Amino acid sequence: MTGWMGIAVALAAALALVCLARFVARARGPRRDPVTVLPFQSGHAPVEHAMSRYHARWYPLTLLFLAFDVEMLFMYPWAVVVAAIGTAAIVEMFAFLGVLLAGVVWAWREGVMRWV
User: Which of 29, 44, 70, 86 has the fewest Cβ atoms surrounding its Cβ within 10 A?
Assistant: First the structure.
């Protein structure tokens, strides 16, 4: 039971620290309406509604970013085990990169990377 006691103490300390931080922020913070003091555009006055629509060209660009983001999520653990697994890991990575390359070629053909 002593192993669980350390975890319980750490959780209690974290909870106490969060409660203390919230109390200090509430005690020392501004007394204004929270809607008017929300951080938006680095403190500048908003020029459009926060829920306004984005142009459709941003969606494929976002998908392209996510493809490269997922690639990095896959490459880090792969780099750790590639020496132990050998040729099969290298073939698997090149197959994955081929699928990503097909996505990039599609995005390029669709004009996702064109900014005009």
Answer: 44
Q: pTM for this one?
A: 0.46
The topology under which CATH files domain 2-110 is: Methane Monooxygenase Hydroxylase; Chain G, domain 1 (1.20.58)
Record the tokens describing residue 95, joined without a space: 């197959």
| pLDDT per residue of the chain (116 residues) written in tens, 0 to 9 | 577 898 999 999 999 999 999 999 888 876 766 556 666 556 566 677 766 776 766 777 787 888 888 888 888 888 888 989 999 999 998 998 898 888 888 888 888 777 65
